[in-house]
Write a structure and sequence with these properties.
The complex is a heterodimer of chains A (303) and B (699). Chain A has 303 residues and is an alpha+beta fold. Chain A has 2 domains: 201 residues, BirA Bifunctional Protein, domain 2, CATH 3.30.930.10; 82 residues, Methane Monooxygenase Hydroxylase, Chain G, domain 1 (Up-down Bundle), CATH 1.20.58.180. The mean pLDDT of chain A is 92. Helices cover 49% and strands 15% of the residues of chain B. In chain B, a hairpin with a 2-residue loop joins β5 and β6. The mean pLDDT of chain B is 91. The chains are: A alpha+beta (303), B alpha+beta (699). Chains A and B meet through β4, β6 and β7 of A and β7 and α8 of B.
């Protein structure tokens, strides 16, 4: 397929997108150093989407979905993959154009393809968040999620933000024309120095699939879940009238994220029944909500 | 171009499923508001694309007409404060401007008509605000909630810009063409100019035209390849709402996926991956089998004539079908029997236990229903019930939940352990009919399973008090009830619903009230179904629930055998269409009315059982004899389900009843005679009620 400025390898694509969003005035952050299911969970999105302070950021977020593991056997599905997340607050009037220009920056010329915005309303029950938007189709393939945040942590977003999430592996597969994620050229080098996605992650997919589905100690995880939940509440000074310590929403939010990931692991291990599932999601949501409220109460900014 | 309004609301992509409703609503809202403002239009039309809502109206006058309104004020001589208040509210300065007629002051308020251009902004904004989107959102540029951000507005009255207060959303005469083919700004002068420039900018404004273009394109491409398109109106509708510039393209499916089973994939899997997930149309070979091609609709014209786009779509489909192939191969390695155990872990509903437990209940019920379905083999039914839900834990159903049942059938046929074809078909048919457009099960075992599954679902959710309310029906119980009605009627199954419901309810504690409730619920669906089929609902009601005088007791008898019910309704309808029938209905009403009135007056009931032969008018005696005969005869005929003959028997009542009313006075002074005659009238009612409750017949 003819590309104008094809980026060099998987990492080249990431670098181009970061360069593009940096040029739009975004803070280019590094990933959150915790296990999360999606870029949305990063406090740079969840918490910063709240309150009036303008904010523009972009970052790559390793995303862990334990139930999606396929032991490296499936060419399209992984339990660990990368999202590139962009948050623009308030939502610019030309959000769609900014997104399309970012595709042009990685060599996807809209004039040669069929790019479509197909209804897909986003909702995260664990974050108590929702928004309206689309999944973006590139010649029939979903490559991004595009959302106008309406609520986070059960709180109305004012102003509304634009959230863009790129499925980096899919996009790279398309740009590179490969049929398996593991065949992606990672470093953009040809010949002997070439490193593929499989070289970097195939072994990890096998080991983590075994861990997620078979080996993770569920008793330990159930205990960790409760510990993280309690720590989160303690840091928000909830339920303890004897202490006057001010709430610490950021460390508390870390604990909420931990509980969320532990829940996902327990889910992958198949030890949570359908009925219990809703109850666990409700517990995580309660933590996330409390963190969001505490964050806003503390002025909703980093200062 | 006189009195022309052009309104275009350029919006970020509007969900396809909302477009038609939105433009219809917007057009009628604007039309209604114009009418309410005394601003007539000669024509008004709406057009919609994924990015535009467009309303064009014509023949609008430049001004509203002047309006004069008379308002009554306080009485003459009312306190000064009251009169001053009235003057203020009417916008008048002194009492000299008031008219006085009789006791009251009147104010005549003349409202000069406003210029249309002045009225329009508030009118259009009110229409936009009132537009009921199924889901709407906030966005920074404007205070108006909208389905997606509003980008810009063209609003022209006779070519002059009408300004609307929409925050930062630009309002004027500038729009844009197709997102990729003509992204630049376009300045428009009027509606004709707008249409022409938009067409030039690769936007097909007219929805019907887009749809026709797609439809023709699909057929042309398929025919060129010697194939047919599988007709799919729903998909055609949807894709029409996804493109402004439709371009139909064809792609290839790897031949491996469309080979005969089990090497290929089941057609339903192909269709689900293609239709639901990718919105592709299926191509069929001349013999009706799936062809290794698909058709889809792009929204762009590219220099390579869609080659890159088709190649991209082929890759996506290949990935999806590879996933499906993985599940198909893996799933078949596990016996369905081996998946049954996993159903113990699968919660059906918090209050109703696991799917496994439910299987036991459905099995008992299916055994009972088997006896009523000719040709159903009990062993096959048992086996099918046991395996019915096993596919829920298969990889394929995990990925495509809508394929439940369908996959069970395939795994029963092509899995590691082959099941009897009857068992496989029953598993495949258990959820049928899935909606008004779906067919009922055709095999006896499938019929049993489908009825048992639905009856248990209805009863169980009624037991835990999860009945549908208003538009809320999360467990699709209305669909289940209608499904039962259709299966019974289409297969002419002769069985009483009540005993089946009692059998279903016997699996639950505290469920005594449930069979009656569910029967009522099914009856409601039945009436709706019959109405759609053109059957009079009053006749259905008359036959469904009859009040019967049995000795001194009045009991309500429910006709729970739907096939019999329909036969009775048909016979009743035919009877009422005859002269005898119409006449007898009149007589019935007369008899029933007199009895009802006298019962109210006397504060007591007149039971036909207490009627005694006594000396009176001769016609009285002969009526009583005929009634006794007819009563017995009708009872026999109804028991034999000979409803037409029963009606004919009723018809013999006409003459004696007519004679009775001609010659006998009921309300005579002789108390005993009067009461006895009332009992005779009650007997007319009771005799006819054996067939149907004629009091519910309308017209």
């Amino acid at each position: 397929m003819p590309q104008t400025n094809k980026p060099a390898g998987f990492q080249g694509l990431i670098l181009e997108l970061q360069r593009y969003w940096a040029a739009q005035g975004c803070v280019i952050l590094q990933p959150l150093d915790l296990e999360v299911g999606a870029g949305t969970f990063h406090p740079a999105t969840t918490l910063r989407a709240l309150g009036p302070t303008p904010w523009k950021a972009a970052y790559v977020q390793p995303s862990r979905r334990p139930t999606d593991g396929r032991y490296g056997d499936n060419p399209n599905r992984l339990q660990h993959y990368y999202q590139l997340q962009v948050i623009l607050k308030p939502a610019p009037a030309n959000s769609q154009q900014l997104y399309l220009d970012s595709l042009a920056a990685i060599g996807i010329d809209a004039a040669r393809h069929d790019i479509r915005f197909v209804e897909d309303d986003w909702e995260s029950p664990t974050l108590g968040a929702w928004g309206l938007g689309w999944e973006v189709w590139l010649d029939g393939m979903e490559v991004s999620q595009f959302t106008y945040f309406q609520q986070v942590g059960g709180i109305e977003c004012d102003p509304v933000s634009t959230e863009l999430t790129y499925g980096l592996e899919r996009l790279a597969m398309y740009v590179q024309g490969v049929e398996s994620i593991y065949d992606l050229n990672f470093n953009g080098v040809d010949g002997t120095g070439r490193i593929s996605y499989g070289d970097v992650f195939l072994r990890a997919e096998r080991e983590y699939s075994a861990y997620n589905f078979e080996r993770a100690d569920t008793d330990l995880l159930f205990r960790h879940f409760v510990e993280a939940e309690n720590e989160c509440k303690a840091l928000l000074s909830l339920g303890d009238a004897t202490t006057n310590a001010p709430p610490l929403p950021l460390p508390a939010y870390d604990q909420a994220l931990k509980s969320s990931h532990i829940f996902n692991l327990l889910d992958a291990r198949g030890v949570i029944s359908v009925t219990e599932r809703a109850a666990y999601i409700g517990r995580v949501r309660a933590l996330a909500k409390a963190c969001c409220e505490a964050w806003l109460a503390g002025s909703g900014s980093n200062r | 171009m006189t009195g022309e309004l052009l309104l275009e609301l350029l919006t970020e992509e509007i969900p396809a499923r909302m477009q038609r409703r939105a433009i219809d609503d917007l057009t009628s809202l604007i039309a209604d508001k114009l009418k309410a403002a005394d601003i007539p239009t000669a024509t008004i039309e709406g057009q919609v694309t994924p990015r535009r809502l467009v309303v064009i109206a014509d023949g609008i006058p430049a001004r509203q007409p002047d309006r004069s309104e008379e308002r009554r004020g306080p009485r003459v001589g009312a306190p000064e404060a009251a009169i001053n208040g009235f003057l203020r509210s009417a916008g008048l300065a002194s009492t000299k401007e008031l008219e006085t007629r009789g006791e009251f002051h009147f104010a005549v308020i003349n409202r000069p008509g406003r210029a249309t251009a002045e009225v329009l902004p508030e009118l259009i904004l009110a229409a936009m605000t009132a537009l009921p989107w199924p889901k709407s959102m906030r966005y920074p540029a404007s205070p108006l909630r909208w389905v997606r951000p509003l980008n810009s507005v063209v609003c022209l009255l006779d070519g002059e810009v009408i300004n609307l207060a929409l925050g930062e959303v630009p309002v004027g005469r500038v729009t844009r063409g197709h997102r990729f083919l003509a992204p630049g700004e376009i300045t428009v002068e009027n509606a004709a100019d707008y249409r022409a420039k938009l067409a030039h900018a690769h936007v097909v404004l007219d929805r019907a035209e887009r749809r026709a273009t797609i439809d023709e394109g699909l057929t042309a491409l398929a025919h060129a390849a010697g194939l047919e398109v599988k007709a799919d109106e729903g998909l055609l509708e949807e894709v029409t709402g996804l493109v402004e510039c439709p371009v139909v393209l064809m792609g290839n499916i790897d031949a491996d996926f469309v080979r005969p089973l089990p090497e290929g994939l089941p057609p339903e899997v192909l269709a689900t991956a293609m239709r639901t997930h990718q919105k592709y149309f299926t191509c069929l070979n001349p013999d009706g089998t799936p062809a290794p091609r698909f058709l889809f609709v792009a929204n762009n014209v590219t220099p390579d004539r869609g080659e890159t786009i088709a190649a991209g779509n082929e890759r996506v489909l290949r990935a999806r079908l590879s996933d499906a192939r993985f599940f198909w191969d893996q799933d078949r390695k596990v016996r369905l029997e081996g998946r049954v155990e996993a159903l113990k872990q699968r919660v059906y509903h918090e209050k109703l236990g696991s799917v496994y437990e439910r299987t036991g209940r459905v099995e008992r019920l299916a055994e009972a229903i088997s006896q009523r379905v000719p040709g159903a083999d009990l062993e096959h039914v048992r086996r099918a019930v046991r395996l019915a839900k096993a596919d829920l834990s298969s990889g394929m159903v995990g990925e495509f939940p809508e394929l439940q049942g369908v996959m069970g059938r395939y795994y029963a046929l092509y899995g590691d352990q082959k099941e009897a074809p009857q068992v496989a078909e029953a598993i495949g048919e258990q959820y049928k009919p899935l909606g008004p457009g779906d067919t009922c099960p055709t095999t006896p075992e499938g019929t049993v399973l489908a009825i048992a599954d639905k009856l248990d679902a209805l009863v169980s959710f009624f037991v835990i008090d999860e009945k549908p309310t208003g538009s809320r029906d999360p467990f699709a119980l209305r669909r289940a009830a209608l499904g039962i009605v259709r299966i019974i009627l289409e297969n002419k199954l002769r069985f009483g619903l009540r005993s089946a419901l009692e059998a279903a309810a016997s699996s639950y504690l505290n469920s005594e009230r449930v069979p009656d409730e569910v029967l009522d619920f099914i009856a409601e669906r039945l009436k709706v179904h019959l109405r759609d089929q053109g059957v009079r609902h009053d006749l259905a009601s008359a036959v469904f629930s009859q009040v019967e005088d049995r000795g001194l007791a009045r009991i309500t008898k429910i006709e729970d055998n739907l096939v019999r019910l329909l036969a009775r309704v048909a016979a009743l309808q035919a009877f009422l269409d005859t002269d005898d029938g119409a006449n007898l209905l009149t007589a019935y009403r007369r008899a029933a009315n007199i009895v009802a009135i006298e019962e109210r007056k006397d504060g007591k009931r007149y039971h036909d059982a207490e009627y005694q032969e006594m000396p009176g008018e001769p016609v009285e005696g002969s009526l009583s004899k005929v009634l006794a005969q007819v009563r017995l005869r009708v009872e026999e005929l109804v028991a034999e389900q000979k409803f037409e003959d029963a009606m004919a028997a009723l018809a013999t009542l006409r003459k004696p009843v007519d004679e009775f009313f001609d010659r006998v006075t009921v309300n005579v002074d002789d108390k005993q005679l009067r009461e006895n005659r009332l009992r005779l009238l009650a007997r007319i009612r009771a005799t006819m009620n054996q067939i149907a409750d004629f009091s519910q017949v309308e017209g």
